[in-house]
Structures are given as structure tokens and as C-alpha cells.
Design a protein that fits this description.
Blueprint (H helix, E strand, L loop, with lengths): L13 H9 L6 E2 L16 H13 L12 H12 L8 E6 L1 H16 L4 E6 L5 H7 L3 E6 L10 H8 L6 E6 L12 H14 L2 E6 L8 H4 L1 H9 L3 E6 L12 E6 L3 H16 L8 H10 L2 H33 L6 H4 L4 E3 L4 H11 L1 E2 L5 E3 L8 H11 L1
Parallel strand pairs: 1-10, 3-4, 3-5, 5-6, 6-7
Antiparallel strand pairs: 2-8, 7-8, 9-11
Helix pairs in contact: 2-11, 2-12, 4-5, 4-10, 7-9, 12-15, 14-15
The chain binds pyridoxal-5'-phosphate.
């Protein structure tokens, strides 16, 4: 059975961490995998999570199964975080999933059942797993132009030109904020324009929001998504607690469906539960139990919001420090775009060869497509990294 299988291909991002760990050099910087790190280079358990964990351990009375949709209080919390204040609140449903990755697959499977002919449009470039997950669900995948390698910003004209060809059997996947890998987000005007195009041409928007709170803050990061949810009949959303609650390994996320009516949203939820049943049956509980505990307590919510805001501010200040260093010590404003990007990532615009040079000559590990994780920097690395960027550019 297995003799026909080819040797496994290494995951381009996960394999970087292994290579970094095995690199014997003292001077090395890991800007590969997308996890937040503090100034000590660690990804700590958040204080709010620690406190919630104590409460859950002290009060949990059973490890019996949860339902197919996971924890309903958690699901409602995810809906509230994203959609509060919109008309979508009355026609929405959600299931808890193993991370946003699980949510992407469940919604991919749902689209395949509900509208077998679906073509899903994803940005070029996009999160490395979008295409494989949607193809695994049996959907056709097309790309829309997104990032200008010249300006290092979103090429809105090109994006809109491509999206104008999407029609009623199509789904357009957008990043809610903090675009992965580029760091370049669409502005509110573009959110409005895409919403109007969806109303006119009939495609369904799908927003993957994995970094709410990391861009401009919890509310600001949901502004475009909320406008859209308020103004379209149907919409799909995936969300993640990996980054903003630091729950990466607990696999905590949600798949959310906004429909024309509450009944249709509930029908979609029923189908999602059947799909979950035949895939993993039910999501792991622990992460959702922690998030539910935090968001169910005003005190813990405040602790969490404060920590999240500190993380967001740290990302902004790291971006500024890197740009300042490039300008002040190297006299170049060529990389000023780094400061306009949002969240953890930035695409430097380097070729695969330049990224290899960064790794081999300087021990700086970024992804082959030119993505670096700003959160992987510590303040002391900045002069070293800035120097390497200038040498390689
Ligand atoms: N979507 C995007 C855009 C991401 O960047 C990621 C993770 O990096 C995910 C989804 C998956 O997140 P999770 O860890 O919740 O599965």
C-alpha cells in the first residue's frame, strides 16, 4: 500500500523552525513561523489565560464529551467579538472548531455541499494553507491580484478588476486584518467597494480573521468585516484564538455563517455539525473553556484586552524601530513600507535567493516568499537585522 508513496515534502514554514534550532551559530534570528514573541524572544502564556486556567481546573467537574458544535457560550463570544452592532447578529450561527484551520476546512466542506460548483478566489499571495485546504475540500481555486511588489501596498485597482469577474457561484476569500503574508491590508474604502461588488455581482464574501487585535486594535480590526456583514445577505467567517489569546497549541477557533435568515444560518450550522461528525466529531475543549471563562468575566476580559493591546503596541514599535534603524544608520527609506504594514508579517520584496542569502550568510530565517515575522525580532536584534537587510537588498 505504501510503496507507491513519494517521500514527504517538508512544510516550507514549519521546517524553517527545525533548521533554525539546528543552526549552531550564536548570531541567528528566527523570523519564520508566525507566533508572537515578547522582548525575551518567548511566546509566553498570557496572564488572563493563566488565571482562567486556574478557574477551569478548580471548577471543571467532568471531561465528558462536549457537543458537535463545541461550547455554545464560546461560539456566542466569537460572534460578539466580531459582529456586535451589526444586523448580522440576528441571522448568524457558529460552531467551535480546531483552530481557524479547522474552520477553513469545515466551511470549505460546507460550500462543496451547499454549492458544489463553487470557485473560491484567494489573494495572490495568501496564507500558505488557504489553497491546499480549499482544494482538499474539492473546490476550484482562483487567485486575484493583491500585492504590488513595487509599492509593497495592496494594488486595489488590480484586485477590483479581478473581482469584477467573480459571479454568483463564486466565493471571495479576504483577510479580515493583518494580511498573511504581506502585512498590507485593504482600507475601509476597499471594504466598501468589495461589499458593493458582492451585492451587484452576487459572489459570497468569506473573511478569514486570524489576528483580530494585532493590527489597530480589537474594534478597528473588525471594522471592514462588520460593514460587510451589515450589508450582504450571506457571508462566511473563520476566526482564531491562536494569536490573540496565545492558544496556538490548544486549537481553538470558530466557523461562522451569516445567512439571509436565522433559519438558514441554523440550517448551515446543522450541516456543519454533520460535517464535523464525520471529520473529527467534536473540537478539543480546553482552549474554548479558557476563552469562555475570560470573556465571561469583566475582570479577566480587562486583563486580556490590556495584554493584547501591549502585544499590538509592541508590534508597532518594532516596525518603527526597524525603519528608524534602516534610515538613521543606513540612510535608506527604501523599507519605510514596513511601518505601514499591520500585524506580525511583512513581505520584504526579496527573491527566494535573497531570503536564502539572509539565512546562509546572516542566520536570519524568513520564509522563502520574502515574509518575515516582525514579532520574531527582539530590540537587540534590530541593528543586526537592519544591516543584513541592507547588505542583501
Ligand atoms: N488563517 C490565517 C490567515 C492564518 O495566518 C492562520 C495561521 O497562521 C490560520 C488561518 C490558522 O490559524 P489556526 O492556528 O487557528 O489554525
Amino acid at each position: 500500500m505504501f510503496s507507491q508513496l513519494p517521500a514527504p515534502m517538508l512544510d516550507p514554514i514549519l521546517s524553517l523552525s527545525v533548521a533554525y534550532r539546528n543552526d549552531p551559530r550564536d548570531e541567528k534570528v528566527d523570523l519564520g513561523i508566525g507566533v508572537y514573541k515578547n522582548s525575551a524572544g518567548e511566546t509566553p502564556v498570557m496572564q488572563a489565560i493563566k488565571q482562567a486556567q486556574d478557574i477551569v481546573v478548580a471548577t471543571q467537574t467532568t471531561k465528558s464529551y462536549v457537543g458537535l458544535a463545541g461550547c455554545e457560550q464560546f461560539n456566542q463570544s466569537m460572534i460578539d467579538l466580531l459582529l456586535t452592532g451589526t444586523s448580522a447578529m440576528d441571522r448568524v450561527s457558529a460552531i467551535q472548531t480546531p483552530g481557524a484551520s479547522g474552520a477553513l476546512r469545515m466551511l470549505g466542506d460546507l460550500m462543496k455541499v451547499a454549492q458544489p460548483n463553487t470557485t473560491i478566489w484567494i489573494s495572490d499571495p495568501s496564507y500558505v494553507n488557504h489553497k491546499p485546504v480549499m482544494e482538499a475540500a474539492g473546490l476550484k481555486v482562483r487567485h486575484y491580484r493583491y500585492f504590488s511588489r513595487d509599492t509593497k501596498q495592496v494594488d486595489v485597482d488590480a484586485m477590483m478588476a479581478d473581482l469584477r469577474t467573480a459571479g454568483k457561484d463564486d466565493v471571495v476569500l479576504l483577510h479580515g486584518c493583518c494580511h498573511n503574508p504581506t502585512g498590507a491590508d485593504i482600507d475601509f474604502d476597499a471594504w466598501q467597494a468589495i461589499t458593493q461588488l458582492s451585492q451587484k455581482n452576487g459572489f459570497t464574501p468569506f473573511v478569514d480573521i486570524a489576528y483580530q487585535g494585532f493590527g489597530d486594535g480589537l474594534e478597528a480590526d473588525a471594522k471592514g468585516l462588520r460593514y460587510m456583514a451589515d450589508n450582504v445577505e450571506e457571508m462566511l467567517i473563520t476566526t482564531s484564538c491562536s494569536k490573540n489569546f496565545g492558544l496556538y497549541r490548544e486549537r481553538t477557533g470558530a466557523a461562522i455563517v451569516v445567512a439571509n435568515t436565522k433559519q438558514e444560518a441554523d440550517n448551515a450550522k446543522g450541516k456543519l455539525m454533520t460535517l464535523a461528525r464525520s471529520t473529527y466529531t467534536m473540537p478539543p475543549d480546553h482552549g474554548a473553556a479558557l476563552v469562555k471563562t475570560i470573556l465571561g468575566s469583566d475582570t479577566l476580559t480587562q486583563v486580556w484586552k490590556q495584554e493584547l493591546s501591549q502585544m499590538q503596541k509592541r508590534l508597532v514599535s518594532l516596525r518603527k524601530a526597524l525603519c528608524d534603524e534602516l534610515k538613521n544608520s543606513h540612510g535608506t527609506s527604501q523599507f519605510d513600507f514596513i511601518q505601514s504594514h499591520k500585524g506580525m508579517f511583512t513581505v520584504l520584496g526579496f527573491s527566494q535567493e535573497q531570503m536564502t542569502q539572509l539565512r546562509e550568510e546572516y542566520g536570519i530565517y524568513g520564509v522563502g516568499d520574502g515574509r518575515i515575522n516582525i514579532a520574531g525580532l527582539t530590540e537587540k536584534d534590530i541593528p543586526y537585522v537592519a544591516n543584513a537587510i541592507v547588505r542583501v537588498a
